[in-house]
Amino acid sequence: MAEARYRGRFAPSPTGPLHLGSLYTALAGFLQAKVHRGQWLLRIDDVDPYRIARGSADRIKASLEILGLHWDGPIVHQSGRAEAYDAALTALQSGGLVYSCTCSRKELADSDAGGVYPGFCRSGQAAPDKPASLRILTQGARIAFNDRVQGRTEQNLETEVGDFILFRRDLVFAYHLATVLDDAEQGITEVLRGIDLLDSTPRQIYLQRCLGLPEPGYAHIPVLVDANGQKLSKQSHAPEAEIRNAGGLLYYLLTLLNQDPPAELASAPPAEILPWAIAHWELGRLSGLRQVIVDPGKFQP
Question: Domain for residue 209, yes or no?
């Protein structure tokens, strides 16, 4: 039987422009897809309307195009997928796997449960007159998988996470439900992303199994951090990456990806750098790495 064609994806949230860490992940995903002669898809994860920054999606697309990271096929927007999310949620409810929860953040913080949902509403005690989220039962669920960069990972969902939210009390579908359904719909065979999302993967595999969806492979690459160990992210106010020197930026990202590009490519344009990068790409050079320290002054305004 022929092996399924490789399909990867880059799924940024349009909450701001791409910073160095985002482009690091995008380049790795692009190269991983191309070295397997597969497809690299672009998805805009705009399921949460409260976090969208106007114009960000267009800026994200423009940055990728300038760097030569051209995606395959049409762009999917999560904001247009509510019907699919609702159908899956209904199926889980019909199977008795979902229940209403009216616990507030304060109540959970005061519970001293260490971030694990203690199951207050699991027995059907949610207050009927309060806004409710929907949680999925995780009783006895233990998930183990082999990550292609970080190795074996195992998690007891009930004791380490608890019943997690699929639909928020502000009427927004949760990230885990949306991303699982979108990956299945797009036929994604491998999810390559930052190690900061490694802890989320068991929840997503659990959902895949509950919904009867295929399980892609996973590869969690290191995150970029500053000298103080702080991850470059929108939450830490990482600035937009300066892409006017597109070739120089790609060369720098390849060094951060531990690919050892030759010095003569340092001043080359993307059209020369990317073919070399595809021909020499080795994901294994990142094995076991959890973070990479960057110079905060490089390729930032």
Answer: no
